[in-house]
Design brief:
Bound molecules: pyridoxal-5'-phosphate
Strand content: 5-15%
Radius of gyration: 21 Å
Oligomer: single chain
Largest sheet: 7 strands, mixed
Shape: globular
Length: about 400
């Protein structure tokens, strides 16, 4: 392997949200404990990005900055090479994050009181965006079909048919259940939304993190140009290359009318441009880091195999759902019979594991945990060993013969 995915990075004292939140909970968390929660990675950034940022600091004046032609070219070319579609430069609206982008979409593209559909269990800021904007939250929960999460299209059809519901926020690939939606599933969703005049905000921030054997289809590939007024697509280099702190995301809004309203929304908040580091990091990542990403995907896939083998051998009463995309595993711990708060305190207090609790993604997530797999493999192994030991002490699971299968 050409790049380093084994060194333990030291993030203590760097203001990392993931680490600070663990240390607030437990200032004495031991040196052996690495949080596996917030979706960034326990890996160094690609060397090409680090070099580009060093060169920037050494040579540039850090004044007001705007996107250059090279920035737009890097974004478009990445979509062409990696996702087989050709956005136009003028469709791009930059945003300091995908979260600010969908908050802005809800406020600027729906009216007060409109219903906004989400598909829980799902990335919890979707719900926050709807509620913080005084819109009505409408849930179209995912359902299980043969051990795989799927969309409930009948329910979606009913909800989309209500004229009060004017927007759907799609998570594609889906965080936390790890689904990579197929072209057929997406087309069916588009059919329902377009007929019922529901605008789709497609959050594709995990679009590059696709496991071998799966293919991400950007929603733009299943839409006809005459349907473009029903979609915006949110992407970013941040998940892919561990750049969340650079606060750069790239939103494609192909319809001019929608784009004007969306951009106006940002202008009302005086949100005009990214910081200088965001542009440089994005360019370096998209121009130079495809090989780093390919290696990363192999590492994440290997970690998922470690996890699913651990479940199969040590705790077959648990369910690790198939990881099609993202680096976030979704695991069902309900067989242990703990309430969701009890599970949380067991994880932190007894297993010394900081994960994302399933209940934060919606009611249907209660009893599940989201485990961040973007860490060196030995970190995952020691985390699972601690979990195993804590489960044995408590008599949870089949290894002791006392757990509920
Ligand atoms: C689906 C999804 N959207 C957005 C984000 C965060 O976006 P940003 O950091 O660009 O605001 C995340 C982070 O985990 C995510 O999973």
């Amino acid at each position: 392997m050409e790049h380093d995915f084994t060194t333990h990075v030291n993030r203590r004292g760097q203001g990392s949200s993931k680490w600070e939140s663990m240390l607030r909970d437990c200032p004495a968390a031991g040196e052996d404990v690495v949080p596996l929660s917030v979706a960034d990675m326990e890996f160094e950034n690609p060397p090409e990005v680090r070099r580009a940022l060093h060169a920037l600091v050494d040579s540039a004046v850090l004044g007001y900055t705007e996107p250059t032609r090279r920035f737009f070219d890097a974004c478009v070319s990445w979509q062409e090479r990696r996702h087989a579609w050709s956005p136009r430069k003028e469709w791009i609206v930059t945003s300091s994050g995908v979260v600010p982008a969908f908050f802005n979409a809800v406020r600027s593209l729906t009216r007060a009181g409109d219903g906004v559909i989400i598909q829980p269990p799902v990335y919890y800021p979707f719900k926050m965006a709807v509620e913080a904007s005084g819109r009505t939250l409408v849930e179209n929960p995912l359902v299980l079909d043969g051990g795989r999460f799927v969309m409930d299209f009948d329910d979606l059809e009913n909800k989309a048919a209500d004229p009060a519901n004017t927007m759907l926020i799609l998570c594609s690939p889906h965080n936390p259940v790890g689904r990579v939606w197929s072209a057929e599933e997406l087309r069916r969703l588009v059919d329902i939304c377009v007929v019922n005049d529901v605008l789709i905000v497609s959050d594709e921030i995990h679009d590059d993190l696709i496991m071998p054997g799966y293919e991400h289809t950007t929603i733009m590939r299943v839409m006809r140009p005459d349907e473009y007024d029903h979609v915006i697509v949110c992407t970013a280099p941040s998940k892919t290359f561990n750049l969340a702190g650079c606060q750069a995301s790239v939103i494609y809004v192909s319809d001019e009318g929608v784009r004007t309203r969306f951009s106006e929304g940002f202008r009302r908040l005086a949100q005009f441009s990214l910081n200088i580091f965001g542009y440089t990091a994005t360019i370096a990542a998209y121009e130079e880091c495809a090989a780093w990403l390919d290696e990363l995907i192999g590492v994440v896939r290997g970690n998922y195999e470690l996890l699913s083998n651990w479940v199969a051998r040590r705790h077959p009463e648990l369910v690790a759902y198939p990881l099609e995309g993202t680096y976030l595993a979704w695991v069902d711990f309900r067989a242990w019979g703990l309430g969701s708060k009890e599970l949380e305190s067991f994880m932190k207090g007894e297993a010394r594991l900081w994960l994302d609790e399933g209940y934060v993604f919606g009611e249907s997530g209660a009893g599940f945990e989201r485990i961040n797999l973007a860490c060196p493999a030995d970190v995952l192994v020691t985390s699972l060993d601690r979990l195993d030991a804590a489960a044995s002490r408590r008599g949870l699971g089949t290894t002791t013969g006392r757990g509920r299968a």
